Amino acid sequence: MNTKILSKTRVLGTLWLFFVLLFAHQVQSQSTEEWYDQAQERIDTLRRGEFGIEIYDINGQAYTGEVKVRMAKHEYPFGMSFDFYEGDIDTDVPTETQWMKAAMYKYFNYGVSGNSFKWSGIDPYGNGPDYTNFDHAVEWTQSVGWELRAHTLLWGGAEGDNHAMPQWVTNLGAAQAVYDECEDRIKREVTKYKGVIKEYDVINEPLHATYTQELYGDSLNWKSFIWAREADPDAELYVNDYNVEFGWGDADEYVTLINDMIDKGAPVTGVGLQAHFWDCCRPDINDFVTQVNKIAEVGLPMRLTEYDYGGDLTEAQQAEDFIKVATVAFSHPSINGMISWGLSDAGAWRENTGFFTADHTPKLAADTLLYLTQELWATNFDYILGGAETINFDAYYGDYRVEVKFGEKWKEFNIPLKKVNDGAVYELHEGDAELKALEFVQASLVDLNVLEVTFDQSIDSGTLDKADFRVFADNGVGINRVTVKEGDPTVLVFELDKQVSIFDYATLSYFPGTLAAETGATARAFGIEKIQIDSELNKVPEVENHTFHLAENALGGVVVGTVSAIDPEGAALSYKITAGNHLAIFGMNQESGEILLNNPFQLDREETPVHELTVQVSDGMNVVSVLVAIYLDKVLSVGTHAARGTLIYPNPTTNTLNIRSNDSFDQVSIFDLGGQLLYKETYGGLIQDTSLELDLDEGIYLLKLSNKTMINVSRVIVRSN
């Protein structure tokens, strides 16, 4: 692959300074809201470059035909924190770590250690360093082509906080002994990972976590950078802190501290803003951009290092906050990356702040992340090349694949459309191309324990290894066998060791193994891909039309009746009134199917003797609508002091009858429609409520409540169990 340079090649260092100065001028001359509204214009300038492609066949002739350009990975870091406490292991049922790897591979492109590189993660008790867990992270990121950021070399902590600074260090007593251990720690780790780890948080939270500095001196803040630079002259060295993104926070103090450290010789090359937001303190564009601009005046690149959102927010609110912060970060000339701090709710340091729920279902924020990074801010296009021609195009900076069909074979080139290469024209020669990789198309559950996975090429059956695949489902599913589908060599058939619930968010992943196409092309790895459910596997809920009766003088809150439905697969059902509920007279418990009387004052038997409601029953996939007829029963009253507002429930009933009345009574009687007395109970005094246990055949009866001056008669319906 040869590379030529367009005449308008940019001098990148000068360009970066130009944009920072231009940005400062823009903010002074316009509101932050206006600046935010123009984010995409800045993104197009900051994060995209001009490139060209020329393609030649095996004979050196200019290529004519179809070309596909696909972004493989952003140059801009959209990262995630993680720790792996297990290495590569073979298991029948996937582990949480294996799911994390598959999820991150699909959604992110950069990593940072959460705890495994901290001093407490490597040598918590002073017995010597153990790098096992951090090396798991190093090995995995190298295998997927990611950079890994090491967090953190030093962290002053608080009194008793052995997670930040191991107790055995703070207990050394003498300042020189503590400084010697800190220097040894920094130089040992940075030397060990020189050339592997290219970016460190050197000191974490020097504004807030200062217990060690208070005991032994704050020169740790700048000496730590000097020690790190001595161990690796090329590493990026960051300071990192929180509460610097808010107007009420510490941006001014942060700027003062950083400048002071630099003045004292600290080779600080970057500034970390943790960007933890909260339910109380959601990102405000004016506030956030104002504080970011203050810190940008230091003149160093900045990175959002630990972004998360409030845990008590709705998914829509979390996605809204993510869009704001990601847009500011990607469009700001001084912010060179955005790292988030919680993959799923199962492992997030604050409850409900992950991108996925605890059962691995992506939240709206995860869907939004994919949209921004793989659609809105990505370059993918097809082109018909007409011979001796250069394809000139703008592209978001990153790694790209160029797919070309030479003869009957699709081949691909990998090219780095990076910022440093802005203006380059790539000459692509067929002899340098590889066969286009075998690619995943879709996965479908065709039976509860049979999965079919479709690829874009015919598969070599001799390359199958079930251990290269993972099926992630709530009940822990393993793979018994994988075969090529008879009659369709583009499809793999997976026989699973147990049934998958059709209501799980089940996914599949493949990490580079032995799988290959019949052409010899190897399969491209893929992260979690949703398993589609064959609609025939999910039977509709079983439910019939219902009829209920309601006394015309019933009190609000009474249960009119319950819509009964059964799901053949045992899934939880939801219920909703979709039509006929004029004036919101009735309400519905969406989980139980109970219909409630919400607004009794709108009941009018003479005007509307029957209310016909349409109720929708759903299992989450299928929806069934049924008709519910509610008849208003006339209440017969005798006497000048007839009781009003009598509540009789449930009605219809099977055996238990509850009675509540605004007026008092001392006798309850039940008659059949022929007037025969079937039940009578007299109380020693006046009461207003009671419960009866009835033993009556199915039918309609008259209930009489009475005292010396009042008789109230109501109709009661009894049904068999």
UniProtKB/TrEMBL annotation:
Domain GH10 span(s) in chain numbering: 90-372
Key words, A-Z: Carbohydrate metabolism, Glycosidase, Hydrolase, Polysaccharide degradation, Signal, Xylan degradation
First-tier enzyme category under EC: hydrolase
Molecular-function annotations in GO: calcium ion binding; endo-1,4-beta-xylanase activity
Entry-linked SUPFAM superfamilies: (Trans)glycosidases (SSF51445), Cadherin-like (SSF49313)
Ranges where the Cadherin domain occurs: 542-671
Biological-process GO terms, alphabetical: homophilic cell adhesion via plasma membrane adhesion molecules; xylan catabolic process
EC number: 3.2.1.8
Entry-linked InterPro entries: Cadherin-like_dom, Cadherin-like_sf, GH, GH10, GH10_dom, Secre_tail
Catalytic activity line of the entry: Endohydrolysis of (1->4)-beta-D-xylosidic linkages in xylans
Keyword Signal: yes
Pfam families given in the database record: Cadherin, Glyco_hydro_10, Por_Secre_tail
A GO term from the CC aspect: membrane
Keyword Zinc-finger annotated: no
Family in the record: Belongs to the glycosyl hydrolase 10 (cellulase F) family.
Designated name of the protein: Beta-xylanase
Originating organism: Reichenbachiella agariperforans
